[in-house]
Please model this.
Amino acid sequence: MAGWYGLGADLVVVVHTGFVLFVLLGGVLVFRWPRLVWVHWPSVLWAVWIEWQGTICPLTPLENWLLRQAGGAGYSGDFIQHHLLPVLYPVGLTREIQVILGAVTLGVRRWTFRNIHARPIVCTFRCASVLVCA
Model:
């Protein structure tokens, strides 16, 4: 049974990492699939709120619980501090870094909107059945 908990913890890490990447880079996906904006913007706002409040995402306690159930030790801090900051920053997460991460998230989203979404889309028919947009 412990193996299932470990697998669950790994799955939570994958989902959490995917969420962080979606928050940061999802604006590019929205360009291709505009309806995705209805998922992307709430995700961005959630991530910014979590960072600016100095709290942790609910997935972090879930991962820790699964790790403990699997016989391992959980970790203190949040997901970014445990999994991403050791790669990005040599020192622990500070309040200032959390505020910066929230601002960077909004900045990346604004940049993608201004530089990708604001471009006019010109569509033409090609091969009589394939709509090509550039």
User: Anything to note?
Assistant: Residues 2-32 form the longest helix (31 residues).
